[in-house]
Structure formats: structure tokens, C-alpha cells
Write a structure and sequence with these properties.
The structure holds two protein chains of two kinds. Helices cover 24% and strands 38% of the residues of chain A. In chain A, helix 1 packs antiparallel against helix 6 and helix 7 packs across helix 8. In chain A, strand 1 and strand 2 form a beta hairpin. The radius of gyration of chain A is 21 Å and the shape is globular. By secondary structure, chain A is α/β, with parallel strands linked by helices. In chain A, strands 2-1-5-8-10-12-14-16-18-20 form a ten-stranded mixed beta sheet. In chain A, strands 3, 4, 6, 7, 9, 11, 13, 15, 17 and 19 form a ten-stranded mixed beta sheet that branches. Chain B is of the alpha/beta class. Chain B is built from nine helices and twelve strands. In chain B, strand 4 and strand 5 form a beta hairpin. In chain B, helix 5 runs parallel beside helix 6. Chain B is globular, with a radius of gyration of 18 Å. Classes of the chains: A alpha/beta, B alpha/beta. Chains A and B meet through helix 7 and helix 8 of A and helix 2, strand 7 and helix 3 of B.
């Protein structure tokens, strides 16, 4: 039995009439799959009922002058003058985005949907990802970013999602990143809100990497404290392509990230890492799947969670090794730090291995700060809060060391230290 | 500088210090020797404020203040320094960062401005030469991957930087070869001054040939059972502790 869809789904379809057939089809798939419910294993730890009960506008109109003015102010601090692609309330805005570097183009996904559909239709199944079907039904002004073969960017390019102060919007940004053969680039994705947020961002990003291409994608999620967030990142890698994804989740009230990486051809490799910091009242869930579909593929996954008092974290890391994927190497680790008696983490590794010549390792830890470490620092004159802050930041920094772009790494460590400073002080 | 009166301390159900009394005047170096399990390390940890050790009776006066009422960080900032027997490895915390943060916590307590990065580097490099610290000492995580000797040198480096009034060295010589011990002793001796006291806890007499103490105390069964000058250390080296211990438990 599938669960009924929330009433807000019954909304006039946006966009041009030519897009309606695919939107209707997506809605039908969503109806067949049903709204996510906790009795399904994938949703066991994350309850979307509160979202279903809330009233949302699932197809926000394009942002007006007030929203764009707010966005402009936020942008200056976020990206400086670096090249950027800007979404406001789920709508791509070309004006705020400015010009793109040579070798990179950004197409209107709605206009190119038929082409997109013919190439990658069926990559994302509504049964696995019902909310991606919701996105397919209601996204507008989505973006198809193409980096031509051989393109190399010296500087990171930014993707920015800004939530305006308009209430109860369910923004549905859609991005396709097509990275040509041998192209090399770094993307930094920011997710911010103008205020505390009262809405929901339901994002879908698809990555298609050509042979020997190299993409670094660092995502910093800093939603307002009342915002809900669901996202799917689905990536598909050709031979010897290299993908590095870093997810840093600091904000939001209810956050669920799904990441699905398919190492489709020989020699493809992915490094997937994440840091999630859940303070009081925050629920942060990362569900990842890495599929080794070809021989000699490699994956290295490391997630760290820091859960404050009355915070909740979920990590589910699944690794699938298909029958012909011999001589692969898959590593996974998940380490969690609990900072209060009422902190909660649900950590679950899942391995499905159908090949016999493989190297797979995984490990999960849950712990508190080491009292010996705390005493050592206090015996050197650091007060207890400082000692906690230093140790917690070190725990976080060890995963942020994986960020290869040095200015970004430094900025992230500073941001995380500031976020943790407040948390450890409230804790004692 | 330091006066300990009738100190009793326990870990869990086990009483380890059983009425220890000791007086260390300013400017003096006192050695605490004793067999394994006599309570030497417990004394060092209690002085530094380790919470696992419960003081059940007695008092400790440091510069006239009730030391036991102070938090570990308050003791440190007031000038008490413990060189750990087993320095803790802290992955991810940069050694230079710890040194600078510790120094500035001390300076702040003394009402001084924090030291900037440039001044700090100048100062720390000078101190590093004293203990022959390798160049990458600063960029590594605290004690992580350090050899036994390097860890002890790192403790002494911290001590040289923080310039405590009362330094407690807990078996700083353990696991060191003669050359490493010389380096450590040189560092320690460079700090000797009329307004600074040291308590050197050791199992062996060797270190006391290099850091010459004003007084030597024998700790056995949780109490000081004998005190003397440096000749006592030599006697212990030759005769062992058995002749004293019998007296202590009687």
C-alpha cells in the first residue's frame, strides 16, 4: 500500500505547456511510489510527515525585485567576484549569475528537456527517490551546465542557492552538470537563506562525467534554523573519471541528503566525504550509495558527525559491488562525536558485494570527547570550553583536510570552528 | 612555594596517598623517589588537578592558596606545570596551535596582551633549540607519531615556554637514553631560578646526577618515609627500596 500524497502536490503545473506531459508523468510515478514513510527502510530514521502536513507552495513564482535585492546583498559576501550560478527560490537567475568562464555554458534545462530526457531518462527511479519525482514535476528554470572537453578552470566556480523571505515555499532547483572528457574543475555550492527560513528546498543535481575528467564539488549547507531540506545528488562516472564530493551540513531543521554515485566504467574513482553538525532540534540525515559497476574502480568515503544535546544525526552508507566489478577498492568510515546526554546518532553501513576479488573496508564509531585529552589541555591552561572547542574542531577539521582548494579549506575550518564554539559552550 | 599536609587520595576504592606531607621552599628542586606503586604519579596528578583522583583528607597550599580548590586550568595559569609521564596524543590539534593557545591563556591570566604569530615564532624557535626539537615539531599534531623521547622533549618545550613557578616532572626520564636525558636535563636546568621550584618524580637516580636536587624524599606506601640530601638518592641506587619499605608498612 502506498501512502497518499500531501495536498500541496495538487497544484497547477508550472512552465510552458510543452513541459506538462513530463511533469504529469513524474507526478504519476510519485503517486505510484507513494510519499516516503518511516515503515520503509530508507526512511526509517527520518520522518517526512511534518513536511506532508505543512502547507507549501511547490511551484514558487520567479523572485521579484525585493527577493533579488536581498540575494544581491548576500552574494557579495559569499562569492566575491568569482564566477557563479545563482538560484533564488529554486529559479536560476542569469542576471545575478554574470558571465561564465570560457569552456563552460549554462543551458535552460526546460528548453532542453527532450534532449536531457533522451540521454539520461530512467537514471533516477521514483521508487527510490520519490522527492526527485516531485522535483521533476515542479522544477522551473533548471540548469544544464556543460564543461566542454578539456576545459580546465583555475578558480572554483560557485553555485549559490538563496532562499528569500517569502514564506512556505518549496523551491525545487534542478541542475545537470555535464563534465566533458579530460575537463577539470572545482565547484563550490552554497545553500543559504535570507532569514530563519520557513520553507523547504528540494534539490536534484545530476552529474555526468566523461572519461578522465576531474570534478571537485564542495557543498556548504547553511540553511536558516527553521528550513527543511531534501536533496539528491546522482553522479555517473565514465572511465578513469575522478570525482571528489564534500558535503558540509551546518544548518536547517530537517535535512535529508541522498547521494548516489555510480562508477560505471573501469578506473573511475570517487572520494566522498562529509561533516554534519546537528545542534539542538536539528535532524541531519545523509544516505549515500556508491555503486562499483566496473572493474578497478575505487571509492573512499568518510563522514563525520558532531551531534549536540537534543540534536539528531543519521548516516547510512551503502556500497554495492556488481558481479563483474573485480579488483575494486572500497573504503568507508563514519565517526561520530556526541556532545550531550540527549544527542542521538543512527549509523549504518551496508555492503552488497557480488564480486569475489575486492577490497572493502568499513568502520563506524560513536563516542564522546576523550577525558584524557580534555585534562591535558586544561593542564596547559585552556579552560574547559576552550579545550572542548579545540578538540571538537580538530575532530571536524580532520575531514575538512580533504578539501583540496586551500582558501576554501581554511574558510570552512573557520566557519566550523565558529559554529562549534557556540555549541560546546551551551553544552557544559 | 608548596606545602602538602597529611594528603590522602584515592582512585575508586583504593587509597593511594595515605597522609603525605611535604614542603618545597621557593628556588629549590626536590626529588621524589620510590618504588612502583608507591603513589608518585598519583601525587603528580593530584597536584595538577586530575578529577579521577579523589582527595579525602589533607590540604595543599601553593603560594599560600588552597591548590585543591582550583580547577586544573586555574592551577596551570597560576604557574603549576605538570610534565606528563605519558604525554597524550591529540590527533588533529596542531602542536604550534596548542603551544600558542596555552601561552596566550597564561598571558591573559597575567593581564598581558596575547602574543602575535610573529613574536610567538621567534620565541618558540629559541626554546626549541634548547631541547633540540626537530623543525617539524610545530606543524605536527600534538604528540601524534612522536617517539618516546620526542614526547618528553615536547613536554619540556611546553614548560620552557610557559615558565611555571612550580614544575612537577613525572618520570620525565623514563624510556630515555643518556643523550636524550642530557638534553632534557639541560632544558630543565636552564629554568632553575630562586623564584621557581621543581618537584622531580623519578624511579632512578640517573636523572638526579644531571638535575641535582636540593632535597630527596622517599615515597613508599603513600607517605614520605625518608628525606635527605642528594646522597640519599645514591644510597637508594645502591641499596634499593626494600630496607625503607619495611619501615613504612610497619
Amino acid at each position: 500500500m502506498t501512502a497518499a500524497l500531501p495536498p500541496f502536490v495538487d497544484h497547477p503545473l508550472p512552465g510552458a505547456g510543452s513541459t506538462w506531459p513530463r511533469r504529469r508523468a513524474a507526478l504519476a510515478e510519485l503517486a505510484a511510489a507513494g510519499w516516503p514513510q518511516r515503515r520503509r527502510e530508507r526512511w526509517r530514521y527520518t520522518d517526512l510527515e511534518p513536511l506532508a502536513k505543512a502547507g507549501f507552495d511547490v511551484a514558487p513564482t520567479a523572485p521579484g525585485d525585493a527577493e533579488l535585492a536581498t540575494a544581491t546583498t548576500l552574494l557579495a559576501a559569499l562569492t566575491g567576484t568569482a564566477p557563479r550560478l545563482v538560484f533564488v527560490d529554486g529559479h536560476f537567475n542569469r542576471q545575478l549569475s554574470g558571465s561564465l568562464p570560457t569552456g563552460v555554458e549554462a543551458l535552460d534545462l526546460d528548453a532542453e528537456w527532450a534532449e536531457f530526457d533522451s540521454r539520461w531518462a530512467g537514471n533516477i527511479l521514483a521508487t527510490d527517490h520519490p522527492l526527485a519525482a516531485l522535483n521533476t514535476a515542479f522544477n522551473q528554470r533548471g540548469l544544464w551546465v556543460r564543461a566542454r572537453s578539456g576545459t580546465e578552470l583555475a578558480e572554483p566556480m560557485h553555485i549559490v542557492h538563496i532562499g528569500s523571505r517569502r514564506p512556505q515555499l518549496a523551491a525545487q532547483p534542478r541542475i545537470v552538470l555535464e563534465i566533458g572528457e579530460n575537463a577539470r574543475l572545482t565547484l563550490v555550492e552554497h545553500i543559504v537563506d535570507a532569514g530563519a527560513g520557513s520553507g523547504w528546498l528540494n534539490a536534484v543535481t545530476q552529474i555526468h562525467q566523461g572519461a578522465r575528467s576531474q570534478l571537485d564539488l564542495y557543498r556548504l549547507q547553511q540553511h536558516g534554523e527553521n528550513q527543511a531540506h531534501t536533496s539528491l545528488l546522482a553522479a555517473d562516472l565514465a572511465a578513469d573519471a575522478e570525482l571528489r564530493v564534500g558535503y558540509i551540513d551546518l544548518g536547517g531543521r530537517l535535512v535529508r541528503n541522498d547521494v548516489e554515485i555510480t562508477l560505471r566504467e573501469r578506473g573511475a574513482r570517487v572520494e566522498l566525504f562529509g561533516l554534519f553538525i546537528a545542534g539542538a532540534g536539528q535532524h541531519l540525515d545523509n544516505h549515500t550509495t556508491i555503486v562499483h559497476a566496473a572493474p578497478e574502480t575505487r571509492s573512499d568515503e568518510a563522514f563525520r558527525g558532531i551531534i549536540g544535546d537534543r540534536g539528531r544525526g543519521v548516516f547510512n552508507g551503502k556500497v554495492v559491488v556488481r558481479p563483474k566489478a573485480q579488483r575494486i577498492d572500497a573504503r568507508q568510515s563514519n565517526d561520530n562525536l556526541l556532545l550531550g546526554a540527549h544527542a542521538e546518532i543512527d549509523a549504518k553501513p551496508e555492503l552488497e558485494i557480488y564480486a569475489d576479488d575486492v577490497k572493502c573496508s568499513h568502520g563506524a564509531t560513536v563516542g564522546e570527547l576523550d577525558p584524557d585529552h580534555l585534562f591535558y589541555l586544561r593542564a596547559r591552561g585552556l579552560d574547559e570550553n576552550d579545550a572542548r572547542r579545540v578538540l571538537t574542531t580538530a575532530f571536524a577539521a580532520s575531514v575538512l583536510e580533504r578539501v583540496r582548494d586551500e582558501p576554501w579549506r581554511t574558510r570552512l575550518i573557520d566557519l566550523v570552528a565558529a559554529r562549534l564554539g557556540g555549541m560546546v559552550e551551551n553544552f557544559t | 612555594m608548596l606545602t602538602i599536609e597529611n594528603l590522602h587520595a584515592r582512585v575508586g576504592d583504593r587509597e593511594i596517598l595515605k597522609g603525605l606531607s611535604l614542603h618545597v621552599p621557593a628556588g629549590e628542586v626536590h626529588a621524589i623517589m620510590g618504588p612502583n606503586g608507591s603513589g608518585k604519579s598519583t601525587l603528580a596528578q593530584v597536584l595538577a588537578g586530575r578529577e579521577d583522583y579523589k582527595v579525602t583528607a589533607g590540604r595543599v597550599l601553593y603560594l599560600g592558596k588552597d591548590l585543591l580548590a582550583m580547577a586544573p586550568e586555574e592551577r596551570a595559569r597560576a604557574g603549576v606545570f605538570l610534565a606528563f609521564q605519558y604525554p597524550i596524543e591529540i590527533p588533529g590539534v596542531n602542536n604550534a596551535y596548542l603551544l600558542k593557545t596555552a601561552l596566550n591563556a597564561h598571558r591573559q591570566a597575567q593581564g598581558k596582551q596575547p602574543m602575535d604569530a610573529f613574536e610567538f615564532m621567534k620565541l618558540i624557535k629559541m626554546k626549541m633549540e634548547l631541547v633540540h626539537a626537530p623543525k617539524d615539531f610545530l606543524s605536527r599534531s600534538v604528540n601524534q607519531g612522536f617517539s618516546g623521547g620526542e614526547k618528553k622533549r615536547n613536554e619540556i618545550l611546553q614548560m620552557l615556554l610557559l615558565e611555571p613557578k612550580l614544575a612537577v616532572l613525572d618520570e620525565t626520564d623514563s624510556g630515555l637514553d643518556v643523550d636524550a636525558m642530557r638534553i632534557i636535563a639541560h632544558g630543565v636546568n636552564s629554568l632553575r631560578s630562586p623564584d621557581r621550584s621543581m618537584l622531580v618524580v623519578t624511579h632512578y637516580e640517573r636523572l638526579l646526577e644531571l638535575i641535582v636536587p636540593d632535597r630527596v624524599h622517599v615515597l613508599a606506601g603513600g607517605r614520605i618515609v625518608k628525606s635527605g640530601d642528594r646522597e640519599l638518592a645514591r644510597e637508594l641506587d645502591q641499596r634499593g627500596y626494600d630496607w625503607l619499605q619495611t619501615g613504612a608498612t610497619a
